[in-house]
Automatic annotation (TrEMBL):
It holds the Pfam family b-prop_At3g26010-like. It comes from Cinchona calisaya. Residues 27-56 form the F-box domain. This is F-box protein. Residues 105-285 form the F-box protein At3g26010-like beta-propeller domain.
Length: 367
């Protein structure tokens, strides 16, 4: 009856790899977090990496994963733009002058790798362009139905979405109303619709916007006003409001990790204020809700600034984005990293003129 126990046999594929090779892990899970300049260089590592980096799906994932500011464009009126990288080895653009666009342009705004530019030619229409300076793709937008003015307060909004494979973006321009005195209206361009539409919202306020001061986060756009405070426009609710603000002629607005930031310089110190509650203006008088979070003071490295810059009363904060602050003092541009606490001299410029700075994310997103 008992024929004995048969030996137990284990079935399994021989030489089967349980773990992924390191090169496969890097290719599938790490490359998408790198800035564009590094990716373009890494295409020469091997054929698999080149194929991976060249696919539209990878470009989409990289635009989702690589969101840190990697540099900035600086432009003097009447001159082509310059680009300054915060890490020249990993971040950069092949043509900072944007000569791939068919006419000279001035940079108005940026958002997650895309730039909004406007023609600066003396004759003809001041056309808007959307471009990616890495891929050198560009698109000319249709002419707006209303007059935006000679120096439009326009903001580009591009938020990469996991579920949306195409790069959908919007342009929002706040312009003086032609029908009402002391009023501001809003013109919105949607890449989905391919057209401009003037919002029904009108802000009745005797205020003047600071051109190219606009920033956006979470589908809300903020502009600085010359009389103090901020104009706010909510793209989802299609509503606007005026906020009290920390205002300084040596300051700027920015997006600090999803919160509106007001930063202004005083000597070698920078004072930061973060927006805490956008609804505090409408709360009852006895409410203790505060509009701005407590101030944070950042002290720049005096050894990097030099003796003359320390006492420079004209030192101005020109950029505040992510974890980076940028200041201008005596024709020198310095950056400060809030994480590493490091002060770096980015460049020295020849003359003291009005310059405008635009943050940039090194992305390979396709338009």
């Amino acid at each position: 009856m008992d024929r004995g126990k048969r030996p137990v046999k284990f079935f399994g594929a021989k030489n089967q790899k349980i773990y992924m090779d390191l090169k496969d892990i890097i290719r599938e899970h790490a490359l998408q977090y790198l800035p564009a300049k590094s990716l373009l260089r890494f295409r020469s590592v091997c054929r698999d990496w080149k194929v991976q980096i060249s696919t539209p799906f990878f470009a989409h994932n990289q635009s989702l994963s690589c969101r840190s500011i990697s540099g900035m464009f600086c432009q003097t009126p009447g001159e082509p733009p310059l680009f300054f990288s915060f890490d020249a080895k990993s971040c950069g653009v092949p043509d900072p002058l944007l000569r791939f666009i068919p006419e000279p342009v001035v940079i108005l705004s940026s958002s997650n790798g895309l730039l909004c530019c406007q023609s600066c030619s003396g004759d003809g229409e001041k056309a808007y362009y959307i471009c990616n300076p890495i891929t050198q793709q560009w698109k000319k937008l249709p002419k707006p139905n209303v007059n935006h003015g000679s120096d439009p307060a326009i903001v580009l909004v591009f938020e990469p979405s996991l579920l949306n494979f195409s790069a959908d973006y919007k342009l929002i321009c706040a312009f003086p109303s032609n029908d009402f005195d002391d009023a501001i209206e809003f013109d919105v361009y949607s890449s989905k619709e391919g057209s401009w539409k003037t919002s029904g919202e009108i802000c009745f306020a005797s205020r003047t916007l600071v051109p190219r001061s606009g920033v956006q986060m979470n589908n809300i756009v903020y502009w600085k006003m010359k009389q103090g405070g901020f104009l706010v426009f909510d793209l989802i609710k299609d509503r606007s409001q005026i906020l009290r603000g920390v205002y300084s002629s040596t300051g700027t607005m920015g997006n600090m990790n999803g919160k509106l930031c007001s930063a202004y310089a005083n000597g070698n110190k920078i004072t930061l204020c973060l927006l805490a509650n956008v609804h505090s203006n409408t709360m009852q008088i006895s409410s203790h809700a505060k509009l701005w979070e407590p101030k944070q003071n950042v002290v720049l490295d005096c050894g990097i600034l030099g003796r003359d810059a320390i006492g420079d009363r004209s030192m101005a904060t020109v950029l505040a984005c992510g974890d980076v602050l940028v200041v201008e003092s005596q024709n020198s541009i310095y950056s400060y990293n809030l994480k590493t606490k490091e002060t770096i001299l980015l460049t020295k410029l020849s003359t003291h003129v009005e310059r405008r700075f635009v943050p940039y994310v090194n992305s390979i997103v396709n338009i």
